[in-house]
Specification:
By secondary structure, the chain is mostly helical. It contains 11 helices and 2 strands. The protein is globular, with a radius of gyration of 23 Å.
């Protein structure tokens, strides 16, 4: 191990931002909160990716082979041809269906940049005073997921479901549809914002239900 200059400590004055960064990292509550927020952002981003990628691919699927869905040529010509990046191509497909806007595509790029920063520079978000998970970007992830999933439910799932064959939904019912992905993401975002009451309530209710079945 290299020797340390005994006089270096007295000659060195820690910058203010460095002091704040150490305090941020060494504070257990701050460290835990930033780890939770980072993991929730990464998780929600993956859910958004799944939403945008899987639904157009599923729309053009034509069978199941070797454990995976196969897609017809229209998937390449009508989706993948829109951009070299499959994620952006899929988002553009949603835009062409009037589910997303050009502003949403621009937002998607910003959200992905932040995702990459968190994934590849996590220590910076844990221990740098000026680097934080952007909660407004997390809301942006939900915003895009909500728009794509709602369009999919309203225009694909409901019209093709036998359950709604002889029933016309009201505008309020259509506007109120939620995917399981949206519900899960909203719970995660609440936790990221420090609002754990709803999740705790759901946990206690679920636990009571399971305990009731076990005792019954």
């Amino acid at each position: 191990m290299e020797g340390r200059n005994k006089n270096s400590k007295s000659n060195f004055k820690m910058p203010r931002d460095t002091t704040e960064s150490w305090l941020k990292f060494l504070n257990p509550e701050s460290l835990k909160q930033n780890l939770i927020r980072a993991s929730i952002y990464l998780t929600c981003w993956e859910m958004l990716k799944e939403c945008l990628l899987d639904q157009p691919r599923g729309f053009y699927s034509n069978g199941f082979e070797d454990g995976k869905w196969t897609v017809d040529s229209n998937y390449k010509t009508k989706v993948l041809s829109l951009d070299n990046d499959p994620l952006i191509a899929s988002a553009l497909w949603f835009r062409d269906q009037k589910a997303l806007s050009d502003e949403d595509i621009a937002l998607l790029l910003v959200l992905r940049t932040h995702r990459n920063e968190i994934a590849h520079e996590l220590p910076k978000f844990l221990g740098h005073a000026d680097s934080n998970v952007r909660l407004e970007f997390l809301n942006g992830v939900y915003h895009l997921t909500e728009k794509a999933d709602k369009w999919w439910i309203q225009n694909i799932e409901i019209p093709t479901s036998p359950e709604f064959e002889n029933r016309e939904l009201t505008e309020d019912e259509l506007n109120g549809v939620k995917s399981s992905r949206m519900i899960l993401m909203s719970l995660l975002i609440a936790v990221a914002n420090g609002q754990e009451d709803q999740l705790r309530w759901l946990y206690e209710e679920m636990k009571k239900k399971f305990e009731g079945k076990a005792n019954g």
